[in-house]
Design brief:
Number of helices: 4
CATH class of one domain: Alpha Beta
Largest sheet: 6 strands, mixed
GO cellular component, one term: plasma membrane
GO biological process, one term: protein transport
CATH architecture of one domain: 2-Layer Sandwich
Low-confidence stretches: none
Family: Belongs to the ExbD/TolR family.
Strand content: 15-25%
Subcellular location: Cell membrane
Strand order of the largest sheet: 1-8-5-2-3-4
GO molecular function: transmembrane transporter activity
Helix content: 25-40%
Radius of gyration: 29 Å
Number of strands: 8
Shape: elongated
Protein backbone atom coordinates (compact mmCIF):
# COMPACT_ATOMS: atom_id res chain seq x y z
CA UNK A 1 0.00 0.00 0.00
CA UNK A 2 1.43 3.29 -1.05
CA UNK A 3 0.64 6.66 0.42
CA UNK A 4 0.82 9.58 -1.79
CA UNK A 5 2.44 12.60 -0.33
CA UNK A 6 0.69 15.77 -1.09
CA UNK A 7 2.59 18.92 -1.36
CA UNK A 8 2.20 21.34 1.54
CA UNK A 9 1.32 24.22 -0.77
CA UNK A 10 -1.76 22.40 -2.04
CA UNK A 11 -3.07 21.82 1.50
CA UNK A 12 -3.04 25.48 2.45
CA UNK A 13 -5.99 27.53 1.36
CA UNK A 14 -5.50 31.23 1.52
CA UNK A 15 -8.20 33.38 3.09
CA UNK A 16 -8.60 36.88 1.85
CA UNK A 17 -8.76 38.96 5.00
CA UNK A 18 -9.16 42.30 3.26
CA UNK A 19 -12.72 41.59 2.18
CA UNK A 20 -13.69 40.52 5.71
CA UNK A 21 -12.11 43.63 7.19
CA UNK A 22 -13.93 45.79 4.64
CA UNK A 23 -17.26 44.25 5.62
CA UNK A 24 -16.57 44.78 9.33
CA UNK A 25 -15.71 48.43 8.74
CA UNK A 26 -18.83 48.91 6.61
CA UNK A 27 -20.98 47.46 9.39
CA UNK A 28 -19.24 49.68 11.92
CA UNK A 29 -19.86 52.78 9.81
CA UNK A 30 -23.49 51.76 9.27
CA UNK A 31 -24.21 51.38 12.99
CA UNK A 32 -22.38 54.58 13.90
CA UNK A 33 -24.31 56.58 11.30
CA UNK A 34 -27.72 55.14 12.26
CA UNK A 35 -27.27 55.51 16.04
CA UNK A 36 -29.61 58.15 17.45
CA UNK A 37 -29.01 59.83 20.76
CA UNK A 38 -32.30 60.57 22.47
CA UNK A 39 -33.46 61.45 25.93
CA UNK A 40 -34.45 58.53 28.08
CA UNK A 41 -38.21 58.23 28.42
CA UNK A 42 -40.22 56.62 31.14
CA UNK A 43 -37.59 56.88 33.85
CA UNK A 44 -39.73 57.50 36.92
CA UNK A 45 -38.62 57.33 40.52
CA UNK A 46 -41.34 54.93 41.74
CA UNK A 47 -41.29 53.30 45.17
CA UNK A 48 -43.40 50.19 45.63
CA UNK A 49 -44.90 49.51 49.10
CA UNK A 50 -43.09 47.07 51.35
CA UNK A 51 -44.93 43.96 52.49
CA UNK A 52 -46.17 44.40 56.06
CA UNK A 53 -44.35 47.67 56.84
CA UNK A 54 -46.61 50.60 57.63
CA UNK A 55 -46.29 54.16 58.86
CA UNK A 56 -44.58 57.16 57.31
CA UNK A 57 -40.86 57.53 57.90
CA UNK A 58 -40.91 61.35 57.88
CA UNK A 59 -43.96 63.30 58.97
CA UNK A 60 -42.54 66.71 58.05
CA UNK A 61 -43.09 66.21 54.31
CA UNK A 62 -46.29 64.21 53.91
CA UNK A 63 -46.99 62.96 50.39
CA UNK A 64 -49.89 64.12 48.28
CA UNK A 65 -52.41 61.29 48.17
CA UNK A 66 -53.79 60.72 44.68
CA UNK A 67 -56.78 58.36 44.69
CA UNK A 68 -57.94 56.79 41.42
CA UNK A 69 -61.44 55.33 41.68
CA UNK A 70 -62.57 52.68 39.20
CA UNK A 71 -66.09 52.27 37.86
CA UNK A 72 -65.95 48.48 38.34
CA UNK A 73 -65.22 47.72 34.69
CA UNK A 74 -61.67 49.09 34.73
CA UNK A 75 -62.55 52.60 33.57
CA UNK A 76 -61.73 55.73 35.53
CA UNK A 77 -64.64 57.13 37.52
CA UNK A 78 -62.97 59.84 39.61
CA UNK A 79 -59.60 61.42 40.46
CA UNK A 80 -59.35 62.59 44.09
CA UNK A 81 -56.37 64.41 45.62
CA UNK A 82 -55.82 64.41 49.42
CA UNK A 83 -59.30 62.95 50.02
CA UNK A 84 -61.02 66.30 49.42
CA UNK A 85 -60.26 67.65 45.91
CA UNK A 86 -62.13 65.95 43.08
CA UNK A 87 -61.07 66.46 39.46
CA UNK A 88 -63.66 64.20 37.83
CA UNK A 89 -61.76 62.40 35.07
CA UNK A 90 -59.88 65.46 33.77
CA UNK A 91 -56.11 64.97 33.89
CA UNK A 92 -55.49 68.57 32.75
CA UNK A 93 -57.25 69.96 35.84
CA UNK A 94 -55.05 67.76 38.03
CA UNK A 95 -51.92 68.91 36.21
CA UNK A 96 -53.00 72.57 36.56
CA UNK A 97 -53.51 72.13 40.29
CA UNK A 98 -50.09 70.44 40.67
CA UNK A 99 -48.44 73.28 38.70
CA UNK A 100 -50.09 75.80 41.02
CA UNK A 101 -49.06 73.83 44.09
CA UNK A 102 -45.48 72.97 43.16
CA UNK A 103 -44.62 75.65 40.63
CA UNK A 104 -42.85 75.02 37.36
CA UNK A 105 -39.71 77.14 37.65
CA UNK A 106 -36.87 74.63 37.87
CA UNK A 107 -38.39 71.38 39.03
CA UNK A 108 -37.54 69.49 42.19
CA UNK A 109 -34.41 67.54 42.87
CA UNK A 110 -34.45 63.83 43.44
CA UNK A 111 -34.39 64.03 47.25
CA UNK A 112 -36.33 67.26 47.70
CA UNK A 113 -39.75 68.45 46.74
CA UNK A 114 -43.14 66.86 47.25
CA UNK A 115 -43.99 63.20 46.91
CA UNK A 116 -47.15 61.66 45.45
CA UNK A 117 -48.67 58.46 46.79
CA UNK A 118 -50.95 56.84 44.22
CA UNK A 119 -53.79 54.77 45.66
CA UNK A 120 -55.87 52.95 43.07
CA UNK A 121 -58.57 50.34 42.82
CA UNK A 122 -57.52 46.78 42.00
CA UNK A 123 -59.43 46.55 38.72
CA UNK A 124 -58.36 49.93 37.27
CA UNK A 125 -56.87 49.68 33.79
CA UNK A 126 -53.14 50.31 33.46
CA UNK A 127 -53.57 53.19 31.01
CA UNK A 128 -55.10 55.31 33.79
CA UNK A 129 -52.12 54.64 36.08
CA UNK A 130 -49.74 55.80 33.35
CA UNK A 131 -51.89 58.89 32.77
CA UNK A 132 -51.72 59.69 36.49
CA UNK A 133 -47.93 59.36 36.54
CA UNK A 134 -47.65 61.50 33.41
CA UNK A 135 -49.91 64.20 34.87
CA UNK A 136 -47.98 64.65 38.10
CA UNK A 137 -44.41 64.25 36.85
CA UNK A 138 -44.39 67.04 34.28
CA UNK A 139 -45.45 68.32 30.90
CA UNK A 140 -43.99 69.42 27.58
CA UNK A 141 -43.69 73.15 26.91
CA UNK A 142 -42.53 73.59 23.31
CA UNK A 143 -39.34 71.56 23.03
CA UNK A 144 -38.67 71.61 26.77
CA UNK A 145 -39.89 69.16 29.39
CA UNK A 146 -40.97 70.85 32.64
CA UNK A 147 -40.59 68.52 35.63
CA UNK A 148 -43.04 68.87 38.50
CA UNK A 149 -42.82 65.93 40.93
CA UNK A 150 -40.15 63.24 40.72
CA UNK A 151 -40.93 61.15 43.79
CA UNK A 152 -43.84 58.73 43.30
CA UNK A 153 -44.87 55.78 45.42
CA UNK A 154 -47.82 53.41 45.40
CA UNK A 155 -50.13 52.68 48.32
CA UNK A 156 -50.86 49.12 49.36
CA UNK A 157 -53.03 47.20 46.95
CA UNK A 158 -56.81 47.38 47.36
CA UNK A 159 -58.99 44.39 46.51
Amino acid sequence: MKFRHRSQTADKTELSMTSMIDIVFLLLVFFVMTFKISAQEGDFNVKMPLEGVSGPSDNTQLPLKLRLISNGAGGLQEIVLNDNLSFGTDWEKLRGYIVGLVGDAAGPGEEEGPEVEIDLDYDLHYVHVISAITSVTGYRSGNDIVKLIDRIKFAKQRK
